[in-house]
Design a protein that fits this description.
By secondary structure, the protein is of the alpha+beta class. The chain has 9 helices and 8 strands. Strand 4 and strand 5 form a beta hairpin.
Length: about 325
């Protein structure tokens, strides 16, 4: 089960969505390039999924739960403290990323995860039994703890047991305790409980992201324009001219904002546009023309190179 929600209004300029996924069987999930960067809390803890240039098959075990925050293409900026090209085609534990200068940046201290049951309380009662972003507590001025996560002690965790939230939260303090622990759906009291556990983790992540962005992590204001222009199929030279850059400037800004050179970025965003059209039922010949490919063969070749499978596989229910 995969559920995706829009971000809150104050984060919509930087985030594409928030999401969570619960694996219903042992399977391999195919992740394809989308020019985005995700901060993910999975069974092994927190990690960053960098911008991809090819297919990333991801093994998942039945019951594994993943919660993610997806940054818009070009909107990450220096959030993770390293050049984006260093994260390209990588899955990097957050604990392995360097601190940002002298500033403590990241998620506040949390107790380690365990295999104990996650407590569920004070949940809304949605009609479809799903908890969405709109149902989450206010994140404006209040710092949120994570009451759903137990400690490793013999007694259930209480909100009062958690360490205080500091004005400058720190990613690094929670990584060693998270690494190696697995949280699965069978550990939760019900499907609704799985939603609650995901909600608690998402609360913590959103609070940390909001705190970090509030301290000033600018993104290239031209990022959206660069991606939009390249998505139309115009050449790199034409896009540079249209935006008032030299090709060297465009290359440098594209690497900084996306982790890709302009040619690769163009291939990725054009592929995503084609995938959106194909999933909407547009015939592939028309998809090729609309998305800026030379012909349908060009579309098929690019799709196979970026995803490892055919477009028909990607748009099928199993894909």
């Amino acid at each position: 089960m995969y559920v995706e929600r829009p971000p809150t209004a104050d984060l919509a300029g930087r985030l594409a969505c928030v999401w969570h996924q619960v694996s219903e069987a042992d399977a391999t999930q195919l992740v394809v390039p989308d020019a985005c960067v995700d901060l993910i809390w999975g069974p092994e803890g927190l990690f960053v999924a960098g911008p991809d240039t090819g297919p990333m098959p991801t093994p998942m075990t039945s019951g594994d739960t993943f919660v993610g925050i997806r940054f818009r293409p070009g909107a990450v900026g220096a959030f993770f403290g390293v050049p984006l090209q260093e994260l390209r085609d990588q899955r990097v534990r957050l604990s392995d990323l360097p601190p940002l200068s002298d500033e403590r940046v990241g998620i506040f201290d949390l107790p380690p995860l365990s295999d104990e049951r996650v407590e569920v309380f004070d949940l809304p009662s949605p009609r479809d039994e799903r908890v969405g972003v709109a149902d989450l507590p206010s994140l404006s001025d209040e710092r949120l703890g994570v009451p759903d996560l137990p400690s490793l002690s013999d007694q259930p965790a209480r909100v009062s047991d958690f360490p205080p939230v500091h004005d400058q939260p720190d990613f690094s303090s929670l990584h060693s305790s998270l690494h190696g622990q697995r949280v699965r759906v069978p550990d939760l009291p019900s499907p609704r409980g799985a939603e609650a556990g995901a909600r608690g983790r998402l609360d913590a992540m959103l609070t940390a992201v909001r705190d970090r962005l509030a301290r000033g992590v600018p993104a290239d204001p031209a990022g959206a324009a660069i991606a939009g222009a390249l998505r139309t199929g115009r050449t790199v030279g034409e896009v540079a001219w249209d935006l008032g850059f030299s090709e060297r400037q465009l290359h440098r800004r594209s690497l900084a904002a996306f982790g890709y050179a302009p040619k690769i970025l163009q291939r990725v965003v054009r592929f995503q546009r084609a995938l959106t059209l194909a999933r909407a039922g547009v015939p592939l010949a028309e998809v090729a023309v609309t998305a800026g490919y030379a012909d349908q063969a060009h579309l098929s070749h690019d799709v196979k190179r970026l995803s490892g499978v055919s477009m028909r596989h990607l748009v099928s229910p199993a894909g």
